[in-house]
Write a structure and sequence with these properties.
The chain has two domains: 36 residues, no CATH class; 159 residues, Jelly Rolls (Sandwich). Helices cover 20% and strands 39% of the residues. The N terminus and C terminus are likely disordered.
Length: 212
């Protein structure tokens, strides 16, 4: 019976703390076989590897334009940082005067700046296999609106003045966005946490008096 009570108290602590977690993306691994949860533009499609893994494929068919995808999400008020990770391969096949570019942008809305605060990255072509990207960014003063965050990916191709001289493409997979910090807990979360703490304190007190 005692072990069961300890388990219940510990469960209250675990689920209480776990409820503090932040944002997650929908279909970040594209395993639905489509772009559920995403907004797309240009020529993008979900492709499957020989091993059966689905991934997003960006490639402007006209070799002069844009191809990309984006997803908005909600960050709990009080979040102080965001961790972003994904796998990509950028194959640049470009003999034109202008360089083809693959970019990723993370943006959030704050009370000080209602418009999106943007953090953009430009990626170099990868000559080998998949490249894993993992980075954290600070956020502050989030607007408590849904959505208040955005992540996007874009391939820009320019064919040049003398015919089609480019055929660059990007493969993208395992996109993840995780909130970092201590968001404001909801009443239900505080109740679970309180039950766990009170229960463990009561068990400890009973054991102390028993040994006295």
């Amino acid at each position: 019976m005692k072990r069961f009570l300890v388990f219940l108290c510990a469960a209250g602590l675990v689920f209480g703390v776990a409820s503090f977690a932040g944002a997650t993306l929908i279909n970040g691994d594209f395993e639905t076989g489509d772009f559920s949860g995403w907004t797309t533009w240009g020529d993008v499609e979900v492709r499957t590897t020989l091993s059966g893994n689905d991934y997003a494929f960006l490639d402007d068919n006209d070799s002069s334009g844009f191809a990309g995808l984006a997803q908005s999400f909600y960050l709990d008020k009080g979040t102080v940082g965001v961790n972003i990770s994904f796998d990509y391969k950028f194959k640049e096949i470009d003999e034109a005067w202008y360089t083809d570019i693959f970019t990723s942008t993370f943006a959030f809305r704050s009370a000080e700046t209602p418009y999106f605060n943007m953090k953009s990255l430009v990626f170099e072509a990868s000559s080998t296999g998949l490249v894993h990207f993992d980075a954290s960014y600070e956020v502050s003063g989030l607007l408590d609106e849904d959505p208040n965050g955005l992540i996007s990916f874009n391939l820009t191709e320019a064919r040049g003045f003398f015919g089609d001289q480019t055929n660059s493409w990007v493969g993208l997979d395992n996109v993840m966005v995780n909130a970092v910090g201590s968001p404001v807990p909801e009443p239900g979360t505080m109740l679970l946490l309180g039950v766990g703490l009170i229960g463990l304190a009561g068990i400890g007190r009973k054991k102390l008096f028993k040994n006295a």
